[in-house]
Write a structure and sequence with these properties.
Elements (H helix, E strand, L loop, with lengths): L1 H24 L4 H14 L18 H12 L7 H12 L7 H13 L17 H15 L4 H4 L14 H12 L7 H19 L7 H12 L8
Helix pairs in contact: 3-5, 6-10
Bound molecules: heme C (2 copies).
Length: 231
């Protein structure tokens, strides 16, 4: 009896210790504390989403988090309708007399201080052939690496994290960009257009390959846990 109960008891102590340490490292302001369970409903505990359509937000740059939250509030970035409203409502509610701006800043500060944990992708990116991996790398370097540094693994200057972010979410992000539902940075538009033109040339020349954007996103998924951090 004692023995069977012991491990569970230990586990409880260990996990509450870990939680306490996390708290110490990144103490949540009272307002943030009041929102954590709400955010967790969709973005997972500590911002590590387990839903492939919903982004992991832990460890994104403060700049990225803030820009997204301001954009949702201003209705400048789509969200699944009901969910978008939910977020706005949650930002407004709570017995706190903080201003919106302050709420957004506090939430962003909190999630930015947590570590990014790559998604457990279930997709077939592992089936990329070595040639496809090479192609993905080359496309990344030519068209995306200037801003999405280290194979998309770091959120440099508010560009988000691509390597290890959920693939289905990244696919719908790209589709929102391309259908103007979400504003794409002008210089990213240019690079993407250049890539589309080069791809068209290839298609016209009869070189048949996987869709380049899809190849790139699969490439990023495959980079998440790779130790090599060259640019
Ligand atoms: C009802 C579900 C839901 C809730 C609750 C929710 N979110 Fe989200 N969140 C989403 C979805 C879905 C997206 C993806 C939107 C898109 O399609 O671009 C998102 C996107 C985001 C992003 C953008 C991430 C990026 O990579 O650009 C941030 C930041 C964010 N949420 C923060 C929060 C915070 C903070 C809370 C709690 C106050 C919260 N969310 C609550 C569903 C939710
Ligand atoms: C000139 C800089 C620049 C280049 C080049 C660039 N991006 Fe971006 N990218 C950004 C910025 C800035 C954001 C954040 C935009 C925002 O959230 O409003 C972004 C966001 C993204 C996102 C959404 C991430 C998220 O969390 O929602 C994806 C996906 C993406 N880029 C893919 C690419 C791909 C693929 C390429 C190459 C074809 C590329 N980008 C080239 C600057 C760039």
């Amino acid at each position: 009896m004692m023995i069977t109960h012991f491990p569970a008891y230990l586990l409880l102590i260990t996990s509450s210790l870990a939680a306490a340490q996390q708290q110490e490292a990144n103490p949540a302001a009272p307002y943030v504390q009041s929102q954590l369970n709400i955010c967790a409903e969709c973005h997972g505990v500590d911002g590590i989403s387990t839903n492939p359509e919903i982004p992991i937000i832990a460890g994104l740059a403060k700049k990225t988090l803030q820009r997204a939250l301001f954009a949702f509030q201003a209705d400048k970035r789509p969200n699944l309708t009901a969910q978008g409203h939910a977020i706005q409502a949650h930002l407004l509610q709570g017995n706190s007399d903080l201003r919106q701006r302050e709420k957004i800043q506090q939430l962003s500060r909190y999630y930015a201080a947590l570590g990014f944990t790559p998604a457990e992708q279930t997709q077939a990116f592992k089936q990329l052939t070595p040639q496809q991996m090479e192609k993905g790398k080359a496309l990344h370097q030519t068209y995306c690496a200037r801003c999405h540094k280290k194979q998309g693994r770091i959120d440099n200057n508010g560009v988000g994290i691509l390597a290890g972010q959920w693939l289905p979410y990244l696919r719908h992000s790209m589709s929102d960009f391309q259908t103007n539902k979400r504003e794409m940075p002008q210089k990213m538009v240019k690079r993407l257009t250049a890539m589309n033109e080069a791809e068209l040339d290839d298609i016209n020349a009869g070189v048949k390959e996987m869709d380049w954007l899809e190849l790139l996103l699969l490439y990023y998924a495959a980079q998440a846990k790779m130790p090599n951090l060259s640019p």
